[in-house]
Amino acid sequence: MVKQKVIDTASRVYLIFALILLYLPILILIISSFNASPRNKAVWGGFSLEGYGKLIHNDMIMQALGTTILLAAGAALVSTVLGTMACIGMLGMKKRSRTWLMGLTNIPMLNADIVTGVALMLLFSRFVDLSFWTMLIAHITLIIPYVVLCVQPKVMHLNTSMYEAALDLGASPVYAFWKVVLPELVPGIVAGFMLSFTMSLDDFSVTYFTKAPGIHTMSTMINAEYRKGIQTELYALSTIVFLLVLLVLFLMNRKAWKKVDGVRGRKGGRQREKA
Amino acid sequence: MKRLGKRLLAGPYLMWMLLFTVVPLVLLAYNAFTGADGSFTLTNVAVILDPVNGKPFLRSIGMSVLVTVICLVLSFPLALILRKCSGNKNSFIVMIFILPMWMNFMLRTLAWRLILLNNGILNQILTALGFGRVHLMNTIWAVILGTVYDYLPFMVLPIYNALVKIDNDVISAAQDLGAGQWTILRRIIIPLSIPGVVSGITMVMVPSISEFVIASMLGGGKVYLIGNVIEQAFNSGYADIHAGSGLSLSLMVLILISMVIYRLFDGEEGESSLW
């Protein structure tokens, strides 16, 4: 049992070590955002909110932020719709054509982002001018496989007899889809949307090659400007982004927690009744 | 009779994927095999053999292998520990590991710049403690550190997802039959974690081999990877899209070949189970 204790302690130490490694850079960003020291951010020069003030008045960063969110939301929405439709369509296919389609899905996944970006740039620059729309198309292409990969397993586990039963009982195909099929798919669709949204937010390579001059997303803006003395603003931005993400995850988690608590509460109640 | 799976639903997706993944790649190959005058040539594909391009290519391969190994070595124990923290805390701890993924990776890389710069936080601490300075910034080690940091969650989560699927009863049964910790790890946990490890390795190795923005932010132009070469070929003063296409094609073929070998070697289709 001594051995078990050693393993437990080692596990705990390792977990804490990993958490420190993971969060230390973020913590440093947050501290730096409040650092008044103008030149060297590694030296504490007193508390200041200057970075936040400058951030709000920096049109370039605000525009990049807007473009990033618009792009991610638009791309995630289109990919979720197209991807989900494709997954349902695959139900009616023979195994062979389904395998083909999944192979096609794997191309952007397995290809390096930089190759996807370069190839799309070659296509766009041949036929159209680069614009917000080319960026949107590129993002959709990049993230659509993640939707398919999230939704496809759920579709494969669908019990199609339920849908057919609903039709037999007089439901219209649209109504039956809405009431019988869609609720089964929702977890997969939500996961696909979230994952593809995240992938779009985080992308650099594909955006870099397909973006129009003058339009920036966060990633390309940081790449172009991080040397030019807007660091404090960027640290302030990181802090805000981090707190927002924290809030969203907390809210999502609280829902899950409530469910857990509900189940536990009911169990406890039953046990008490027994006693 | 009306059935749920209407193949037509997959139509838009199929069109999209053909138009925006297959056509661009065909165009890339066309550019790679033609010269500026449009005649067939192999020189663009052969530029990879030129040491100017070949060295960064090999450096990228070496770096991505190293990054993947480091991620795997760090992640496996972590995923094991996370699995042990089962129960209600579970979702919370997993959330903690997903959280940093939601921060823009450019901002996270910026944090490492802050730490590693020659007058950065790491060196401030080291000098304060009486050790000498370390020169990490603008070396390949800084790039490796940043890349490991960015891709670590992509290794942890698939392995964790594979591990939580292992039934506790299987482990209890092994224990009852007299297996020690080590035997359980070797004979049960590791074999059952393989699908997660496979998708983890894919998700870390493919993006890290074509990484170029971390290399320019933490390597300061002194660490030159294949991604940087390709980027220069398309976006610099002396741009040559044919040579760039040739290099991109080489990179793509390398990734595809290694994936095929990897999947053959592995023997089974690795589930992509990031979420």
Strand content of chain B: under 5%
Helix-strand category of chain A: mainly alpha
- DSSP summary: helix tally of chain B: 12
The largest inter-chain interface, given as chain pair and residues per side, is: A-B, 96 and 89 residues
**Helix-residue proportion of chain A:** over 70%
Q: Which regions of chain B have little confidence, pLDDT < 50, spanning 5+ residues?
A: 269-275
Q: Main β-sheet of chain A: number of strands, strand sense, barrel status?
A: none
Which CATH class of the domain at 60-229 in chain A?
A: Mainly Alpha
State the CATH architecture of the domain at 60-229 in chain A.
Orthogonal Bundle
Low-confidence parts of chain A lasting 5 or more residues at pLDDT below 50?
263-275
How many H/I helices of chain A?
A: 11
The shape of chain B, in one word, is: globular
What's the CATH topology name of the domain at 60-229 in chain A?
A: MetI-like fold
Give the N-terminus to C-terminus distance of chain B in angstroms.
Answer: 37 Å
Q: Tell me the series of helices and strands of chain A, N- to C-terminal.
A: HHHHHHHHHHH
Report on this structure:
The complex is a heterodimer of chains A (275) and B (275). With 275 residues, chain A is mainly alpha-helical. Chain A has a domain at 60-229: MetI-like (MetI-like fold, Orthogonal Bundle), CATH 1.10.3720. Helices cover 82% and strands 0% of the residues of chain A. In chain A, helix 3 (59-91) runs parallel beside helix 6 (132-156) and helix 4 crosses helix 6. Chain A is globular and about 75 Å long. The model of chain A is unreliable at 263-275 (pLDDT under 50). Helices cover 72% and strands 0% of the residues of chain B. Chain B is globular. Chain B has a domain at 51-103 and 143-266: MetI-like (MetI-like fold, Orthogonal Bundle), CATH 1.10.3720. Chains A and B meet through helix 1, helix 3, helix 4, helix 5 and helix 6 of A and helix 1, helix 3, helix 4, helix 5 and helix 6 of B.
